[in-house]
């Protein structure tokens, strides 16, 4: 089978790779229906994270189950499934607490490279969620979004304790930030301020439920949020970028007693204890426990209540995966969907 | 009147100072019934925080109202009152959100020096809470504790979202840490692990509700907590020290999805974004909004449900305030109570 391999910064190749196999009795192998490029893949594509050797890439996927190991019970061949980027047993104490991405037996599904025609899924029963029946083609992008960006946007809002009536600011207008707007809306936020300076992203943010747009960044952005909230800051701020500036902007945009949920994988982020202390801001982040949210998110997609698939503004054949990376790197696309 | 003045590290003097006055129509002046030395005063006493000029000291107090300004409505001369170390109007948006120590009009009551015979209290209506009647002498230490350490321990537990049934670890066995044990117990924690290596403090922690004692510190302490909690960590951790080691110990003692409430004033604390991210731990700290909790805490004290005054293991006349600092600095005393 064929799949994407990152050789070096800017060098993604689509090439023949080993066929994935059932290695453990709890594994499944799926035939990929759709996969995509993640904003976090760009850290490597841009050389900010090192790439020491040719590395299979991608960690988002929906597909049809082809084969399962002897101990797999809930998942069956033929099912259409959505899964999380971290495999989890869904039974350990951390999973039961709702933090499947901290499962005591977690494995990174992306280690095998999901931008490929077929994928090995460890701990299939605890990782995959099947749809009641095969979805129509138009729902596939939104179901794919649930496997990471929509789940991650949801966690940003959940980690920040978004409540009905809240004023929520979203830092970052990438696919995750836009999905965080959907999540805030679903959780009942009254005012949703998208921080964005790109017309097309502003427009999608509004379509997803943003009530206000703030184009300013950094200190100016935080000052603008305070100005809009009676001088105190937003109740909840969703940090969807992951660098030192965006984190500072997020923390300074939240009111005393407010919360920041941070889901951008941190790069160079240090939080100064004294500033955090006097801010009274609550902070929680991490890799989103997508598996916790999948049943609900799939229901919302199938009911037509949310349509996060709109973040895919570029659809390409999987063979053109390199163009997907380029388009996102150059910010010509929000997010590239790839179909084998 | 006379009061404490810090001249330099280790040099606290009890001397004649100006009589406090009503400076604004929202002020009150109280006659001090009891005051005390705070762990945070030691940062200055030890020279870790600089002292540039002779500085009146202390920020914890209970007293009897002597005089009020023209705009004071709820507070009346003759009342016995407990107040917070930050004066607050109790009406601004931050106060209404329960964060009175971030009041838009806050003033640090300690700026005037509360280790004194009389104290000016700004924003008296929003800062002070009167008891229904003058308390008996034996209740005075516990009411005094409410003005800071008990309120701060309560906030540590509230900021960490302690829930009934939780396992809670407390880092720090000073007066605040011990009061945090009381708070965790009141909030229904099932297991309370006090991290302490001093016999007398361990014993008071047990009396306040600790079910377990862990003497190990740092990495060893965190490892011990994980060992005691099925390998995952405590549901909630209350950080009551404020240095880099104690914060690290606290963060590493909490389970994924757990919380750290931090109330030790940070000194040299930097939180690494990547570690916080992958930990899934929620974090909130700050100067405790004591004013929010005072009505409830006073009720609990008057009902005999809590007895935080036991943290005062040294009672001295106010004139011997220097000895109070010395005894706490040398850890001969947990906390020194001073009466004029």
UniProtKB/TrEMBL annotation, chains A, B:
<dbReference type="Pfam" id="PF00107">
    <property type="entry name" value="ADH_zinc_N"/>
</dbReference>
<dbReference type="Pfam" id="PF08240">
    <property type="entry name" value="ADH_N"/>
</dbReference>
<dbReference type="InterPro" id="IPR013149">
    <property type="entry name" value="ADH-like_C"/>
</dbReference>
<dbReference type="InterPro" id="IPR020843">
    <property type="entry name" value="ER"/>
</dbReference>
<dbReference type="InterPro" id="IPR011032">
    <property type="entry name" value="GroES-like_sf"/>
</dbReference>
<keyword id="KW-0862">Zinc</keyword>
<keyword id="KW-0560">Oxidoreductase</keyword>
<keyword id="KW-0479">Metal-binding</keyword>
<protein>
    <submittedName>
        <fullName>Zinc-dependent alcohol dehydrogenase family protein</fullName>
    </submittedName>
</protein>
<comment type="similarity">
    <text>Belongs to the zinc-containing alcohol dehydrogenase family.</text>
</comment>
<feature type="domain" description="Enoyl reductase (ER)">
    <location>
        <begin position="10"/>
        <end position="338"/>
    </location>
</feature>
<dbReference type="InterPro" id="IPR013154">
    <property type="entry name" value="ADH-like_N"/>
</dbReference>
<dbReference type="InterPro" id="IPR036291">
    <property type="entry name" value="NAD(P)-bd_dom_sf"/>
</dbReference>
<dbReference type="InterPro" id="IPR002328">
    <property type="entry name" value="ADH_Zn_CS"/>
</dbReference>
């Amino acid at each position: 089978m064929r799949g994407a391999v990152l050789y070096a910064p800017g060098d993604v190749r689509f090439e023949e790779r080993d066929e994935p196999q059932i290695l453990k009795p709890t594994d499944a192998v799926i035939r990929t229906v759709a996969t995509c490029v993640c904003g976090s893949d760009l850290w490597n594509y841009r050389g900010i994270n090192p790439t020491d050797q040719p590395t299979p890439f991608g960690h988002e996927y929906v597909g049809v189950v082809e084969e399962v190991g002897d101990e797999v019970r809930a998942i069956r061949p033929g099912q259409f499934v959505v899964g999380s980027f971290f495999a989890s047993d869904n039974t350990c104490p951390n999973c039961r607490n709702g933090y499947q991405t901290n499962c005591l037996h977690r494995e990174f599904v992306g280690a095998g490279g999901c931008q490929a025609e077929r994928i090995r899924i460890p701990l299939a029963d605890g990782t995959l969620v099947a749809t009641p029946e095969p979805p129509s083609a138009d729902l596939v992008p939104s179901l794919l979004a649930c496997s990471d960006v929509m789940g991650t946007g949801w966690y940003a809002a959940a980690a920040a304790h978004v409540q009905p009536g809240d004023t929520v600011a979203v830092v970052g207008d990438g696919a995750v930030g836009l999905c965080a707007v959907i999540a805030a809306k679903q959780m009942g936020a009254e005012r949703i301020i998208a921080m964005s300076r790109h017309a097309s992203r502003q427009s999608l943010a509004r379509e997803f439920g943003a009530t206000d747009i703030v184009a300013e960044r950094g200190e100016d952005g935080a000052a603008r949020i305070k100005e809009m909230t009676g001088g105190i800051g937003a109740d909840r701020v969703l940090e969807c970028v992951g660098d030192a500036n965006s984190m500072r902007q997020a923390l300074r945009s939240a009111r005393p007693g407010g919360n920041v949920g941070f889901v951008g994988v941190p790069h160079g982020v240090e939080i100064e204890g004294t500033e955090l202390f006097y801010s009274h801001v609550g902070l929680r982040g991490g890799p989103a426990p997508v598996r916790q949210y999948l049943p609900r998110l799939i229901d919302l997609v199938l009911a037509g209540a949310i349509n996060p698939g709109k973040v895919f503004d570029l659809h390409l054949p999987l063979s053109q995966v390199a163009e997907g990376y380029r388009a996102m790197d150059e910010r010509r696309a929000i997010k590239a969907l790839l179909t084998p």
